[in-house]
Amino acid sequence: MALIKVSQLVKHFPKRGGFLNRVIAKVHAVNDVSFEIHAGETLGIVGESGCGKSTLGRVIMRLLDPTSGSIEFDGQPLQELSHQQMMPFRRKMQMVFQDPNSSLNPRLTIGAMLAEGIRFHNRSGYILKDQPLDQYIDSLLSKVGLRADDKSKYPHEFSGGQRQRIGIARALSVKPDFLVADEPVSALDVSVQAQVLNLMQDLRDDLSLTILFISHDLKVVDHFCDRMLVMYLGHVVEEMPCKQVHQNALHPYTQALLGANPVNDPDERHELTVLDGEVPSPYDPPLGCPFVTRCPIKTTKCESENPPLVQINDQQKVACWEVSAEKPHA
């Protein structure tokens, strides 16, 4: 059974205005998204900025309430639970935020920050068992490549990469089963990105974590994840194993993302893909396919009907009228 199951998830943000402060428009951030994540799997979500990736992660964590749809954690529905009812799940579901500077409390030392969450979630004794709190924090800092005496320091005394390690340590401090990593390396230098990614990979393998990894960098997702979802304007347009993305990407948007990636080998240089057209406003998305304003293979049908995400083969799903017409369904 899937650890995380998302079905027809929708999140709209109302925009209010006028004398009576009525709802005059809605931001269509997440539209009819469905997928599963199995225990021990790392699922990547990739797409341009503003496509709804971070919103999707926050809705799954119930940091934002869904407009409609369902979210299940280990078979338990979460979408209608109150703040108090969500408390038993908070320890099991943790998040690493994009900006390590704003996600850490500047007024608390690292040790105090970690201890606060551990004490709160250790009421049953599951986290510490018989281990002293200070000893547990020391071992936690060691796991993420920091020293035990760093717990007496404040966030401003660390570099960006070290602060992100602290954010990872905080998420892991309560022994979660599921981790949402929201662009955890996008604010870091390239050399530091590799260190943090290697650290997360080691921790994932050692602790058997299930991870939802959000990134705008397809190369990072390809390196770190088992499977990926490609999002555009709040919709999932393709789903496939990461190992197949370079050979079998079918959706024109996924192909454009691949074409926009610079290559490391100068002998394999190619002309970068540049899409024509403009990204539609999330306040007023197209009636048909969300990618219709930039798609090089669009037809009249694409302008009026939104293609469903259909199974193309055993491991791949695509939302495109032209692709699904050419490929036999599994």
Fold blueprint:
Layout: E1 4-17, E2 22-37, E3 42-46, H1 53-60, E4 68-73, E5 76-77, H2 83-90, E6 93-96, H3 110-121, H4 133-143, H5 160-172, E7 178-182, H6 190-207, E8 210-215, H7 218-224, E9 227-232, E10 235-241, H8 245-248, H9 252-259, H10 300-304, E11 310-311, E12 317-318, H11 321-326
Structure description:
- With 330 residues, the protein is of the alpha/beta class.
- It contains eleven helices and twelve strands.
- The protein has helices at 53-60, 83-90, 110-121, 133-143, 160-172, 190-207, 218-224, 245-248, 252-259, 300-304, 321-326, and strands spanning 4-17, 22-37, 42-46, 68-73, 76-77, 93-96, 178-182, 210-215, 227-232, 235-241, 310-311, 317-318.
- Helix 5 runs parallel beside helix 6.
Q: What keyword list fits this structure?
A:
Rossmann fold; 330 residues; eight-stranded mixed sheet; 11 helices; 30% helix; four-stranded antiparallel sheet; alpha/beta; 12 strands
